[in-house]
Amino acid sequence: xxxxxxxxxxxxxxxxxxxxxxxxxxxxxxxxxxxxxxxxxxxxxxxxxxxxxxxxxxxxxxxxxxxxxxxxxxxxxxxxxxxxxxxxxxxxxxxxxxxxxxxxxxxxxxxxxxxxxxxxxxxxxxxxxxxxxxxxxxxxxxxxxxxxxxxxxxxxxxxxxxxxxxxxxxxxxxxxxxxxxxxxxxxxxxxxxxxxxxxxxxxxxxxxxxxxxxxxxxxxxxxxxxxxxxxxxxxxxxxxxxxxxxxxxxxxxxxxxxxxxxxxxxxxxxxxxxxxxxxxxxxxxxxxxxxxxxxxxxxxxxxxxxxxxxxxxxxxxxxxxxxxxxxxxxxx
Length: 332
Known about the structure:
- The structure is a single chain.
- The chain folds into 2 domains: 3-179 and 219-242, NAD(P)-binding Rossmann-like Domain (Rossmann fold); 188-216 and 247-283 and 301-329, UDP-galactose 4-epimerase, domain 1, CATH 3.90.25.10.
- It has helices at residues 12-23, 41-45, 62-72, 86-91, 93-114, 147-166, 188-200, 221-233, 250-260, 289-294, 303-319, 321-329, and strands at 3-7, 27-32, 52-56, 76-79, 119-125, 170-175, 178-179, 207-209, 215-216, 219-220, 239-242, 248-249, 269-271.
- It starts with a strand and ends with a helix.
- The longest helix has 22 residues, at 93-114.
- With 332 residues, it is an alpha/beta fold.
- Strand 5, helix 6 (147-166) and strand 6 (170-175) form a beta-alpha-beta unit.
- The strands form 4 sheets. A 7-stranded parallel β-sheet has the order 3-2-1-4-5-6-11, sandwiched between helices. The chain has a two-stranded parallel sheet with strand order 7-10. The chain has a two-stranded parallel ribbon with strand order 8-13.
- The chain is globular and about 60 Å long.
């Protein structure tokens, strides 16, 4: 039985990847950062917590990382842990760099000393491209426009350095925006779908957002974790853009989301300068040609289906709060 260690198991991608790897017959270990509040609700939501072993792991602590690797003896490590909210990175730039940047080096160095044959996946991000020309591919120059993007770019390059310098099997997935019903409320897509549900139920009368013209290449997280796995199954380690090849504005997302419940977004959405970033990325559009031709991966979920999935999940959350809570409580 193959074994995998996932850092950031409590996040959106970690939960979906854990479920996918369990379906593939893996023994899955989930690394999580100790805190006063346990945050395992996504694992409950996907009904996967009972199938994984959770272990404490902190990317700020080299000893913690080495202990986890020695305990798990994994064949594959997926580094999904990060301070992943772009807006917060402007307020917490140093912490973002320590976790999302230097944390990658700590893992790579631990692998190098313990077992350099472990295959490693690094979660890079389309934010590294900033406002570079579209469509953005593996050959597009990086122009990070936030502390988060800069930290991720460090992690991306150091991953490549270890691959080439120490002949390690390391891959980076340059993932464009990917969403799901278990996306964090701090992300604009979830803020929109949750807002739509609250307005539909009569709890709110308006939805305040920032830049409605920003365009993103949005896909479904459940599809994208399969790309992560596929990279580590390939014969040669490499870096890949993971995207749909389509881009939609925040305004389009709003229009589609409100339409799911029969409402016109123009009657409810308002812009608020408080939600504009100090430096904004206006347009991200990925070119997934390389991963499609090399590995054969492609997205399965359309933009419309993704938005509908998220809206309906949030509406159900408010329509049947007891049922929604019970899907977590029955697993605790």
